[in-house]
Amino acid sequence: MGVAAIKEYAFEPADRLENFHGNQLLYIGWDQHLLFCAPFCLPLPPAMRFGDIIDKVLPGVFGYHPDFAKIDWSKVVWLKSGQPWQADFNKSLAELGLKHKDVLRFRTPGLDGIKGSAS
Amino acid sequence: MDMKVSKKKLGLKEKYQHMTRGLGWETTYQSMDEVFPYAKYEGIKIHDWEKWEDPFRLTMDAYWKYQAEKERKLYAIIDAYAQNNGHLSVTDARYINAVKLFLNGISPLEYMAHRGFAHAGRQFPGVGPRVACLMQSLDEIRHAQTQIHSLSNYNKYYNGFHEYRHMLERVWYLSVPRSFFDDAYTAGPFEFMVAIGFSFEYVLTNLLFVPFVSGAAYNGDMGTMTFGFSAQSDEARHMTLGLEVIKFILEQDPDNLPIVQQWIDKWTWRGYRVLTLVGMMMDYMLPKRIMSWKEAWEVYFEENGGALFKDLARYGIRPPKWLDQIEQDKDHISHQAWGTFYNYAAACNFHTWIPTDDELDWLSQKYPNSFDKYYRPRLEFWREEAKKGNRFYNKTLPMLCQTCQIPMIFTEPGDPTQICYREVDYKDNKYHFCSDGCKEIFEHEPEKYIQAWLPVHQIYQGNCFNEGVDPTAEGFDPLAAVLDYYHLNFGRDNLDFEGSEDQRNFEAWRGMATKNT
């Protein structure tokens, strides 16, 4: 049973890919840095190079945090839907198999937030 | 000469019988199923509506009499409060932000409750519950109106009160209470009664009204306190109705038990999530605290709720799911929520601030297991940065939970350093959740929740700009455009309390009221 209803009830999901004007949504969270209260939601073109997200998008998103400038991106541990994931900065979102509404998390070992509080 | 007339007056019970149940009939021109089309699709089986025991045997004449008396008292106090500039006697102008949260987030729900009970009453084939729902529906619209009247006084002097109706359907955080009630209202009449009548009014209502009403009393806000008290005897009736609904449904047919249990699990969790806002209000927004959120949860849920569910065990009902998680969360959610509003204070219709040193110490004392370790460093860092002119305003939109619509701010049970992520693939799309509770609610009725109007996604779809705005124009400022769409005045309604117009006005007016210069 998909829903309790008095008659057939079937509609398109409100957030399907076609509604985002050529972009797809990518969620991205920085583990143990909860000064940012929640992971972020970003609308991005599927052809965007992953490295461009790191270089051009993330500084505006996470740059406020004093740990951000200290990140060694070659040592960052990535998770996609909670499973280990291999980033490739030279590939696009589409080439990396990132689909609409996928969620990435990254961990920065050694950087554990304001005074080690995971903030 | 007086004539002796043998006056036969009906007793209250008989009068009630004739004036309510005696007015119903079985329809014959159309089948009862056609007349009450929502009565069966939820799977609840009712064999005998006459078994409904009325928790309060009120007829309309008695109802009007009681309510009119309460209204007279209420308006006398509200008028006196307004005429004496009562708003200047609150503890601190920061308090007024708690009132904004109430008017914007709670009062519109009273109106939705009015509609919901009217709808449920219309759809029940039994006369007893129909009459009970009718009266609760009237109570609820009375609450909406008395709250709006009482709080309109603040709107004359302070920012953020001006467009609560408009904002309810637009402003990001208001989608949380709104979607909660929309979910209940769009369910069938039985689920609505379990959702609002039982889970909210009976199980959780003390955690909503006691904090706001006591908070008002502790902070010198007689206007808010008075409408709270005026609603109290209504609330007592609502609680009784909520309990009667559960008992009636369960006694009618054993097949009803699993359906009701699932609703209790769902609605306790959904209500608990909405109460995050109340927890934050108690721990951060009341200059004079009443008790901590954690203490309130322990008294009003763990103790009182525990006794209730023991009582319901004879019907086969067990306590709601996910209580073990809630038990761990009580050390955290109010801090996580205030941090969220501090992050997004630019898009908010009330002010935020960092607690004073005294307040930070109070939080350390009330939350010895969590505050100093996880939350104090965050707040102190923000305070230091703000002092340097680097106040943190988060400008990137957050990921939201598909069910409760709260940003994904909650942490894993047992690990306050790790955001809790849950997801489901459904018909080629991914959906994300803040918790097992929200995930399971989605999985039970995915077709309902894939329709959710998530503010963040709606902004990215371009649905949250005023007509005629061109998001592709050069120099387009999306935040400004969204705030316009919200009818939120930048620099007046939002940002920090420190330096706000509210703060300046309150100080100036209180000065005029208490000094000669």
Roughly what fraction of the amino acids of chain B lie in strands? under 5%
**Main sheet characteristics of chain B:** 2 strands, antiparallel
Number of domains of chain B: 1
Radius of gyration of chain B: 25 Å
Q: Helix tally of chain B?
A: 22
Shape of chain B: globular
| Spatial strand order of the main sheet of chain B | 1-2
The CATH C-level name of chain B is Mainly Alpha
- Helix-strand makeup class of chain B: mainly alpha
Mean pLDDT of chain A: 97
Which strands sit side by side, in order, in the main sheet of chain A? Answer: 2-1-5-3-4
The overall pLDDT average of chain B reads 94
Task: Give a quick set of tags describing it.
heterodimer; A: 119 residues; Ubiquitin-like (UB roll); 5-stranded mixed sheet; 1 helix; B: 517 residues; mainly alpha; Ribonucleotide Reductase, subunit A; two-stranded antiparallel ribbon; two-stranded antiparallel sheet; 22 helices
Structure explained in plain terms:
The complex is a heterodimer of chains A (119) and B (517). By secondary structure, chain A is an alpha+beta fold. Chain A has a single domain (22-116), classed as Ubiquitin-like (UB roll) (Roll). Chain A has 1 helix and 5 strands; from the N terminus they run ββαβββ. Chain A has a 5-stranded mixed sheet with strand order 2-1-5-3-4, with no helix packed on it. In chain A, a hairpin with a 2-residue loop joins strand 3 (77-80) and strand 4 (83-85). Chain B is mainly alpha-helical. Chain B has one domain: Ribonucleotide Reductase, subunit A. Chain B has helices spanning 12-19, 32-35, 60-83, 96-105, 107-123, 127-155, 164-168, 175-185, 189-218, 222-252, 256-274, 276-285, 293-312, 323-329, 333-343, 357-366, 371-387, 436-444, 446-449, 455-460, 478-486, 501-514, and strands spanning 411-412, 415-419, 422-426, 429-433. In chain B, helix 9 runs antiparallel to helix 13, helix 11 packs across helix 18 and helix 12 (276-285) crosses helix 15 (333-343). The radius of gyration of chain B is 25 Å and the shape is globular. The relative contact order of chain B is 0.10. At the A-B interface, strand 1, strand 2 and strand 5 of A face helix 15, helix 17, strand 2, strand 4 and helix 19 of B.
